[in-house]
Amino acid sequence: MKTDQKLKTDVLAELAWEPRIDETQIGVIVENGVVTLTGFVDDFYKKVAAERAVKRVKGVKAMAGDIEVKYGDAFKETDKEVAKAIVRRFAWNTVIPYEKIAITVRDGWVELSGEVEWAYQKDGAKRVVEKMMGVKGVMNNIDIEQKVVPSDIKNRIIEAFHRAADIDAQNIEVDTEGSTVKLSGTVHSIAEKEDAQRAVFRATGVTKIRNELKVAFNS
Fold first, then answer.
1. Which of 83, 149, 96, 89 is nearest to 123 (CA)?
2. Do the beta carbons of residue 130 and residue 45 sit within 8 Å?
3. Which of 9, 36, 85, 86 is positioned for an S-S bond with 29, CB 3.0–4.6 A?
4. CB 15 within 8 Å of CB 39
5. What is the 3-state secondary structure (H, E, C) of the chain?
6. Ranges for the BON domain (predicted)?
7. What tens digit of pLDDT does each residue of 107-155 get?
8. Phi, psi of 87 (to 5 degrees)
9. Could you tell me the pLDDT band of residue 156, with boundaries at 50, 70 and 90?
10. Is there a contact between 120 and 202 (Cβ–Cβ < 8 Å)?
11. Distance between CA 107 and CA 79 in Å, rounded?
């Protein structure tokens, strides 16, 4: 089992490996396998990159992202201008059905709502917003349209896990109830837990996931 000190060392090394961020701006606290990030960055996507780096580290049980985003005095765009920029970026993206998504911006915090057909469209909308200047945070409240779930959905999900290089399917249990899928078992990192969830959402008809996977706290 990794000690908190070893886990902190691994987290700091992964942050230093991430080219999009300056690890000297970020503080790392580790307690019982839970990592808390603190500090300030000048771009929301740098915060996202730091959090994703931590999630890749084996043994991290959970993460609290307390990094604050502070844009410099030179940045003058209003919430209205940020919202317009998001609309334009959505319109350029062929994956996102932008006409089905509502955008609200308050003090740099973006709320997405509406209804789309596929989970990858919901996830894609959030990823586009994360990379935009002026954004301090994203609340993704987009719903996914209800679809008929095929009878062999469980087998399709398990097969998808086995195809994925970053998912250890051996330790994951899949249960279905209507359009809801429950995942249980253990994985090696938060990133693997999220990869499994994204794989499930690619299955036709899945509208909700209960992701109860636990991260193994070991070396």
1. 96
2. yes
3. 36
4. no
5. CCCHHHHHHHHHHHHHHCCCCCHHHEEEEEECCEEEEEEEECCHHHHHHHHHHHHCCCCCCEEEECCEECCCCCCCCCHHHHHHHHHHHHHHCCCCCHHHEEEEEECCEEEEEEEECCHHHHHHHHHHHHCCCCCCEEEECCEECCCCCCCCHHHHHHHHHHHCCCCCHHHEEEEEECCEEEEEEEECCHHHHHHHHHHHHCCCCCCEEEECCEECCCC
6. 3-71, 78-146, 149-217
7. 999 999 999 988 888 989 999 999 898 899 999 999 887 665 666 777 8
8. -60, -45
9. confident
10. yes
11. 6
Q: Which two tokens stand for residue 203?
A: 């299955």
13 Cβ contact partners less than 8 Å away, ≥ 6 residues apart: none
* Amino acid at the residue 128: V
Q: What is the residue whose two structure tokens read 């890749």? A: 56
Name the token pair of 158. 């398990």
The whole-number pLDDT of residue 141 equals 95
Domains defined along the chain, listed by start? 4-69 (3.30.1340.30), 79-144 (3.30.1340.30), 153-215 (3.30.300.130)
Report the alpha-carbon distance of residue 93 to residue 138 in Å, rounded.
18
